[in-house]
């Protein structure tokens, strides 16, 4: 399809400033789950259409716990996005993952506790499988694009998501390390699981800003560190995305796109009409 959005990107508003982004449009979308964090910006890079959403709102006005993850994913899905790239900051819990490097994790641990985690409620039940929560195919392509722009990057690692908005104590940081966690952040969950419910491929480009607080010879994490690293890495991320777009096809077959097929437990004739309407972009093809 000529006008298909090949990629959705959730991250900071700085990513919007792509040199050469053409045919920009802004969409204010209302969803059954409320309003997304920001308007969704669409445009074309070398003829490839993409969509951007500022996770924390324009000007970073939403804390991690305040982000309306369901509205964000639902709005992108309603525009036809089937692949989602999250660009976010993270702390390193692994000696070999140094500040300034970019991690493409392959596993995740949800340590949040205040967030709505599913689209399916109020009379409709679905149990999605997430043994491999990050799309392996898209992760490999993102990793390859980063290598092509000479970024210091690693493929693999476990991403723990904490509630925030505060940073960890030393005791917490050391416990997370003892659990085998590799990097730490505040926004990947439940975003990744909602993307799976929406049958999207999902991958995280996690920019290491610090060693959290566990590293005795390094300065503890601060907002200044986070902002500085993200600003330094913006151009690298943009260049990698340009290359990634050239490697994406309009119609690629992926298991992520059919994960609801056998996940909906509720009998179709018992699903309330209100829920059928509300979840139409997600479940219409199965009813």
Helix content: 25-40%
Class computed from helices, strands and strand pairing: alpha/beta
Question: So, the CATH homologous superfamily of the domain at 87-286?
Answer: Nucleoside phosphorylase domain
Task: Name the average pLDDT.
Answer: 92
**Ranges with pLDDT <50 over ≥5 residues?**
none
Shape: globular
What is the third-level CATH name, the topology of the domain at 87-286? Rossmann fold
The biggest beta sheet reads: 11 strands, mixed
Describe the structure.
It is a single chain. This protein is an alpha/beta fold. It has helices at 69-78, 136-148, 170-178, 191-197, 223-246, 273-278, 280-283; strands spanning 5-11, 22-27, 40-45, 48-54, 83-92, 102-104, 107-111, 153-155, 158-162, 183-185, 201-210. It has a domain at 87-286: Rossmann fold, CATH 3.40.50. Strands 1, 2, 3, 4, 5, 6, 7, 8, 9, 10 and 11 form an eleven-stranded mixed beta sheet that branches. β3 and β4 (48-54) form a beta hairpin. α2 packs across α5. The protein is globular and about 60 Å long. The model has no long low-confidence stretch (mean pLDDT 92).
């Amino acid at each position: 399809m000529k006008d298909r959005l090949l990629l959705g990107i959730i991250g900071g508003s700085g990513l919007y400033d792509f040199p050469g982004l053409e045919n920009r449009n802004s969409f204010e979308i209302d969803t059954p789950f409320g309003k997304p964090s920001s308007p969704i910006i669409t445009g074309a890079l070398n003829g490839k259409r993409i969509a951007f959403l500022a996770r924390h709102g324009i000007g970073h006005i939403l804390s991690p716990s305040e982000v309306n993850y369901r509205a964000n994913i639902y709005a992108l899905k309603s525009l036809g996005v089937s692949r989602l790239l999250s660009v976010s900051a993270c702390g390193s819990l692994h000696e070999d993952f140094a500040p300034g490097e970019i991690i493409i994790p392959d596993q995740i641990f949800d340590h949040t506790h205040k967030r709505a985690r599913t689209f399916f409620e109020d009379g409709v039940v679905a149990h999605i499988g997430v043994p491999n929560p990050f799309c392996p195919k898209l992760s490999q392509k993102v990793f390859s694009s980063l290598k092509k722009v000479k970024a210091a990057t690693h493929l693999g690692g476990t991403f723990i998501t904490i509630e925030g908005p505060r940073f960890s104590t030393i005791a917490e940081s050391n416990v997370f390390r003892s659990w085998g966690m590799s990097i730490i952040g505040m926004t990947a969950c439940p975003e990744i699981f909602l993307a799976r419910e929406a049958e999207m491929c999902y991958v995280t480009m996690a920019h290491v800003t610090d060693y959290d607080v566990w590293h005795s010879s390094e300065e503890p994490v601060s907002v200044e560190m986070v902002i500085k690293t993200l600003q330094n890495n913006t151009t690298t991320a943009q260049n990698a995305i340009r290359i990634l777009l050239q490697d994406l096809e309009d119609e690629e077959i992926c298991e992520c796109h059919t994960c609801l097929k056998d996940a909906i437990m509720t009998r179709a004739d018992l699903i309330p009409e209100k829920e059928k309407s509300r979840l139409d972009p997600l479940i219409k093809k199965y009813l």
